[in-house]
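Hi R.,

Here's the chain you asked about this morning:
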Amino acid sequence: MATKRKRTDLGIAQKCEICLYKDKNPGASQEEIAAHFNCEWKTVISRRTIGDILSQKNKWSVGQSVVCGARTEPKRMRNAENVEMGKALFLWFTKMRGKHAVVTDAILTKKACYFGSKMGVTDFTYSTGCLSRFKARYDISMKVICGESEGVDPVTVAVGHYETRQIISQYSANDVYNCDESALFFRTPPGKILSAGLVCGTKRYKDRVTVMFCCNATGTNKRKVLVIGKSKQPRCFQNFSVQLYVDYVHSRKGWMNSSLFLDFVSKLNADILCQDPNILLLLDNASSHPADVELANVTFCFLPPNTTSHLQPLDAGIKCFKSHYRKLQLQHIVQMMDADSDPDVNLKEAVSFIRAAWKNVSPLVIQNCWAHAGLIDKGSLATNTHDMTESVPAVTSAQLSDIQAILMKLPAAASLFDSC
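And the predicted structure, written out as tokens:
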């Protein structure tokens, strides 16, 4: 009775390499090929296995192109069913994505059924497995839709980009500012958790504030965050000096409006007056940003409509801020859970997280945001930062000793700012 051959698991890439070796060495026998790869791969491949692979040489040559686009290498290759239908489906998919259309698994399956009926395909199941193999074959995967950049006319972006750069070029990078506001759902916990079983959700918190950031292009002057809430004096602010952390104001819906914006830029103008330069403030064309305001030390530059996702520098910086905020929120949740306390976040705690998160956004991140928007060259930003750093006089050791002596007399104030 013949002994059964021991199965050797070879991947598609390995089988392709064996066929390629045979092409380069046509005079090599199957025994010599087996000995070569046994030595190279430290495995046991028989002569008959080499013969089986070389007998299907055309199959593995096709498989090599499939492997190059795949995330992980399969151990065996299944031949595609109804190749022509798959090509037609992929052609349609490419056309739809070229039009920025949203294509899901359900839509793809429906379209496959349509092509199958037109081509007279009767032996195809249109199952989840078939769909998964089709997507793996063409390197298609599910992606999260991010931002709004695809819905903008590229001509409008190009014109706005050119005009804005022309205006910015008249100012030093230290004197070019941008302000932008965003909603912050400060109590919302993470949407995903670790669990060994079924997880039942609860009603999600919808408590929201509007946060407004303002800084210059080099990141050397980050203004205090403006926080807009709904309550004039929240209960949690009792015995709490909120203005030490942020500039807190209120409106009926907690949104920015023309009155609050006018107060904000008037305060900015007064602060700039003490420093005696004129600055350029880059803004989006939101209705809460009136264009008819004239200030002595602040010149407004409004971006074209619907170009915020491309030209607003702080649009990317806000994402970094929210990442730092969520990290602080999660640390708070862990501490409260360890102490068997309620892990909820109130507005008082959120304000301290906002201040700390904005502080953690480094000048380098802000410079990268401006460079990413293409409004100021990265080299120009670095040069302005270097020049400004060298213009600041060095602090002597005697001055440091005096500062430390003063701080020792103010332990409460020192602990307050250390905790932030």
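The first helix runs from residue 12 to 24.

Let me know if you need anything else.
M.
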